[in-house]
Specification:
Blueprint: H1 2-14, E1 26-30, H2 46-55, E2 60-62, E3 69-71, E4 74-79, E5 85-90, H3 104-115, H4 133-137, E6 149-153, E7 156-160, H5 168-172, H6 182-188, E8 204-210, E9 214-219, E10 233-237, H7 242-250, E11 256-257, H8 265-268, E12 274-287, H9 297-305, H10 309-317, E13 322-323, H11 344-353, E14 365-370, H12 373-390, E15 394-399, H13 401-409, E16 415-421, H14 428-431, H15 448-459, H16 463-481, E17 484-496, E18 500-501, E19 517-518
Parallel strand pairs: 1-10, 1-11, 14-15, 14-16
Antiparallel strand pairs: 2-3, 4-5, 5-7, 6-7, 8-9, 9-10, 11-17, 12-16, 12-17, 13-17, 18-19
Helix pairs in contact: 9-11, 10-12, 15-16
Length: 521
């Protein structure tokens, strides 16, 4: 009876026209955190990505349902017979939000900025398939003219790869490869992305940013496809409390929440507004291998084998997450290695081998996580299991999003909660992040053979052979070295108002705002 009444109230609430605001085509969602930055070359998180795809556009877009490549700033592209040279033909009507034409030079200087070491772009490695890009990013090559990008004409941009890359168009649709108004960066420095200064080239432009309150975006009147943009306004809220966001959704104050409070999962599963679908994402803990006692591989293995992941997914999260001792989710053509299973006895044996029998003498350590009730619950469960199974005590350290990101980036942690959502549908997006010095490695871990395997996979044209190289690399990661502790594979979960049209579930949780509209009732 209680569930039936709740469903009736939800349906009635969504149908109350007197509660509608004046702007009918207004899409409101909870972004889950205050963004760290709106600078495309400095952002690293999912909350930032949701904003970037509204404000900016790359050479290539993605289909909202299939994720297949679609024309963006480039209206078409050509590929050489050997698959190494890509020629992008830009639209003559592509413009920045101030009316300035977008040219091939904009992409040239933007990619140069992303690869310039002083910029500090953690995602610079996304450009590594380009000839000379890695050497320039690592400071080994000083002349950017030797990197494989050329301005052939104002509307023709040529890219030369060091080897064929089957997912290059997916990379071209990723935010790091979007154009940045570099002239604006030179004028305003790190203040270029403030509302009063920002110029963007996406379907929307920044209208308002009230920190810790809301970000408002409105249509970019100079966008090449403006005539087909239906939304008049987008508002993103930074609520970290999922219970607050859930209540606002039920009160019709939000159209989309990207997660459901853990305690509400069973309650909402039957509701038509809720969705639970496959997600190309992995939840794990980073380990700072530079700090004792985590410099000992036996300790890292003991932590990974010392807790039962099924307790977390089955009894705590309950949304269909898959317990995982591997890092990269299964995908067509790739099956990850098995990893290290839960084995209390073996974990205790490894800990004793490291010099901590029954946990005796194990130092006081902490686990860092960003503010979230779900992260807290998972962490509490795991440290409780470590206490019971290994005899060690781990304290919890909670930080808000920006502080958490800064601490992880600077390796100011011992164990840290992490999540990785695939940037494209290929195992490389999960595995190349842990190469030596990788921008998103942040563990202090380095392994020569691992680096060789990732580099070899980038050169390998045979899909089966390439998959074997990647699988061997992941085996090192999750069975031999353990700079990370895999925990579970995400599900795409949330709630969407029935009035939102043009929204499709996909494994990357990418939802182009160009396809969205609000059904007026």
């Amino acid at each position: 009876m209680q569930r039936a009444l709740l469903l009736l109230l939800c349906v009635l609430c969504w149908g109350c026209p007197q509660q509608r605001e004046q702007v009918q085509q207004h899409f409101r969602f909870n972004n889950g955190a205050e963004p760290e930055t709106l600078d495309l070359h400095l952002m690293t998180g999912v909350p930032e990505n949701r904003l970037a795809t509204a404000l900016f556009e790359g050479l290539v877009n993605q289909h909202p349902e299939t994720l297949d490549p679609l024309p963006g700033v480039a209206e078409r592209w050509d590929t050489s017979e050997d698959g190494k040279v890509w020629t992008f033909h830009l639209r003559s009507d592509a413009k920045w939000s101030n009316g300035r034409a977008i040219t091939a030079e904009d992409f040239f200087v933007s990619w140069k900025r992303a690869l310039t070491p002083a910029t500090g772009c953690q995602y610079g490695y996304m450009l590594y398939p380009i000839e000379g890009a890695e050497a320039f990013h690592k400071g080994k090559l000083k002349d950017f003219a030797q990197v494989g990008v050329k301005v052939k004409s104002p509307l023709v941009f040529e890219v030369t790869l060091s080897a064929p890359c089957p997912y290059f168009l997916d990379l071209a649709a990723f935010k790091t490869l979007f154009p940045v108004p570099v002239w604006l960066v030179e004028e305003h420095g790190d203040k270029w992305s403030r509302p009063e200064n920002m110029i963007s080239n996406g379907p929307f432009k920044l209208a308002e940013w009230k920190p810790n309150e809301r970000i408002v975006m409105v249509p970019n009147e100079h966008y090449w496809n403006r005539a087909n943009i239906k939304l008049e306004k987008i508002t993103a809220f930074p609520y970290t409390d999922t219970e607050t966001a859930y209540k606002l959704f039920l009160q019709q104050e939000l159209d989309w929440i990207t997660t459901v409070p853990t305690q509400k999962i069973e309650e909402v599963k039957w509701q038509p507004q809720a969705y639970f679908t496959p997600y190309l994402g992995s939840y794990f803990y980073r380990i700072n291998v530079t700090k004792p006692p985590f410099d000992k591989v036996e300790v890292r293995k003991a932590l990974s084998m010392g807790f039962d992941r099924s307790i977390i997914t089955r009894d705590l999260l309950k949304a269909g997450q898959l317990p995982a001792t591997y890092f990269c989710p299964r995908m067509p053509g790739y099956d990850p290695p098995g990893g290290l299973p839960y084995d209390r006895a073996k974990a205790r044996e490894l800990l004793a081998k490291a010099g901590y029998p029954d946990g005796k003498g194990f130092p006081e350590v902490s686990l860092l996580y960003n503010t979230s009730e779900a992260h807290k619950q998972v962490a509490e469960n795991i440290v409780r299991q470590w206490k019971e199974n290994l005899g060690i005590t781990v304290s919890l350290q909670n930080s808000e999003w920006k502080v958490y990101l800064n601490d992880v980036d600077n390796q100011n942690y011992q164990v840290a909660r992490a999540g990785w959502i695939g940037d494209y549908t290929d195992p490389n997006t999960f595995l190349d992040m842990f190469v030596t010095g990788g921008g998103n490695n942040n563990t202090g871990w380095s392994h020569a053979r691992y680096d060789e395997l990732i580099a070899g996979a980038a050169r390998e044209s045979d899909p089966a052979a390439r998959a074997e190289l990647l699988r061997e690399a992941e085996t090192i990661l999750v069975e031999e070295e353990l700079p990370i502790i895999p925990i579970y594979i995400y599900v795409n979960q949330g709630m969407l108002a029935p009035r939102v049209q043009g929204w499709y579930g996909n494994v990357l949780d990418n939802h182009p705002y160009t396809s969205l509209s609000i059904r007026e009732e």
